[in-house]
What we know:
There is one protein chain. The protein is α/β, with parallel strands linked by helices. The protein has 5 helices and 7 strands. The strands form 2 sheets. The protein has a 5-stranded parallel sheet. The chain has a two-stranded antiparallel ribbon with strand order 4-5.
Amino acid sequence: MEITRVGFGSWGISGPGWRYAWGPQDDAESIATIRHAVEQGVNWIDTAAVYGLGHSEEVVAKALADLPEADRPFVFTKLGLSWDDNDPASPPVRDMSPASVRREVEASLRRLNVERIDLYQVHWRGAAGSTKKGPPPPTIAGAGTSQVCSYSLARSPASWARMAA
């Protein structure tokens, strides 16, 4: 996988109504912005299930829906933060239990309208649980981490080795 130096981060297009919102966004403008970035050569989009409680992934899907396969950028998303649909203002819970991982990957695949996630990242280090019984390999092209510094990686190599297993 070769990626451009600059990608498109989609936290800012996640819309209002959740704890870490940036405020109201116009989805049509967000879609146009993503398409413009891709037209300018950006070949990857970073999103997360928790951004807008799924809304950001849905906007990314709409932006990519009409693009020919050869022109589609890589899609990266994150897992490990679950939310309460009945209380979107409550803080997300860090959860890497096998049941949560499977539920999250299936929901992200559906919202993104893809058969495979190009890079699936653990959103926050320290999420409870294990990914040993994670999603089946055909749905994930690569795994990684987000919000992790080199110091943290150096201190816990065994936990990151389990992530890759």
